[in-house]
Amino acid sequence: MRSYVEVATGLNRLDAERGGYVPAKAEFERTAEGYFIARQTQHQVILGPDLRVEGSVDLLTPDGLRLRSRPVGLALVDPGTGRSVMLGEVRGCEAEWVAANEVLYRDAFEGLSPGDIAYRLTERSFEQNVILREQIPPELVVAAGMDPLRARVVVLSEFYEAPEPEVVARSGDWDLRFGTMTVGEGVAFGVEGGGSGARVRIRKSWEKLEGRQFLIESVEYVALGRLLEGLPMPGEARIEGVRGKVQRTAAAGKGTRTAEGWELPVLGPGSSGAQAQTEAPRFEDGGVRVSGAGVEGWAQAKTGGAGVLASSGCWPSAEATGQASSCAGR
Predict the structure, then answer these.
(1) Do residues 162 and 68 touch, judged by C-beta distance below 8 A?
(2) Separation between Cα atoms, residue 27 and residue 295, nearest integer Å
(3) Which of 102, 114, 84, 95 is nearest to 53 (CA)?
(4) What is the Cα–Cα distance from 236 to 139, expressed in whole angstroms?
(5) Counting beta carbons within 10 angstroms of the beta carbon of residue 59, is it exposed (0 to 12), middle (13 to 18) or buried (19 or more)?
(6) 3-state SS, residue 248
(7) Which of 16, 189, 299, 324 is deepest in the core (most CB within 10 A)?
(8) Cβ-based neighbour number of residue 206 at 10 Å
(9) pLDDT confidence of residue 36
(10) CB 188 within 8 A of CB 133
């Protein structure tokens, strides 16, 4: 008989009550108020029931750093002209528990680009994935007054609490290091047979715009378009809607200019009310504290709890494209 020792990041976590290390478990729990919490890994997470709320995505790193954020929306940008338009802003939507370690916010964007936002937890990482369920055709880009050969698709996330990261150069991009965790390389890829296995690198930047802190992730429109082939096309009404958005953006004046010279649309702040409820889970003394009626685990939800569970995994359609960023331990 042979024995072996498995070595990997995040396999165990420190349990203060037991006074030692115990095996980590990458699994969310759900509170009675609709929050999803992860407290059995070295990094801990609280996901709010409404992504429009400030700090609805709350991450505590193993070394105690707090990163409170929310996704803002999906935009088109033409770096050559500086022109930009929001394709879809994050709206209120119900969170679905689709796997023990995955939470999906379906139809998360208000407006022109239907898609979902999913969060995935592993023993060593925490990921945000934007899932597109419709093409962004060249006609739509042209309707926005942009050159498809220059345009970039941009995901915006706002951070309300985060230390200044260590920025480390990577080939063609940057890593953002927050203590023991790093926002590393993001990729766009086809899911469930879409995109022929191709993967496209996503560029990111960490920028302060009008006093607000944003993570800006972008991918070339032409490269992303190849991955979107096979998805449904938007109707003419959506393309006309983009033209209307461009006109409203122009009437509102110029947007916010990034360090690379891109001009992003004027962005409204997130809601600050709902997440301040007294029964909301919170980080306290290095861990997640839950008030109210307690929590349920995946096994309970699967056998009798409320909510929508997708047995085939976290992707809602056979042909979807994800755009992912992750924060991983090192």
Answers:
(1) yes
(2) 13
(3) 95
(4) 10
(5) buried
(6) helix
(7) 324
(8) 17
(9) 96
(10) no
Cα–Cα distance, 302 to 311 (Å, whole number): 10
- Residue 47 has what pLDDT? 97
pLDDT of 37 reads: 95
Q: Would you say 88 and 245 are in contact if contact means Cβ atoms under 8 Å apart?
A: no
What is the three-class DSSP state of 4?
Answer: coil
H-helix or E-strand spanning residue 299: helix 298-303
**What pLDDT band is residue 140 in, cutting at 50, 70 and 90?**
confident
Record the pTM. 0.83
d(CA 59, CA 68): 6
Residue 271 identity: S
Task: Give the list of residues 6+ apart from residue 210 with CB closer than 8 angstroms, or none.
Answer: 256
Q: Please give the Cα distance from 69 to 285 (Å, whole number).
A: 20
**Measuring CA to CA, which residue among 324, 323, 246, 302 is closest to residue 98?**
302
Residues 133 and 108 sit within 8 Å (Cβ to Cβ)? no
Specify the pLDDT at position 292.
67
| Each residue's pLDDT tens digit, 151-170 | 999 999 999 999 999 999 98
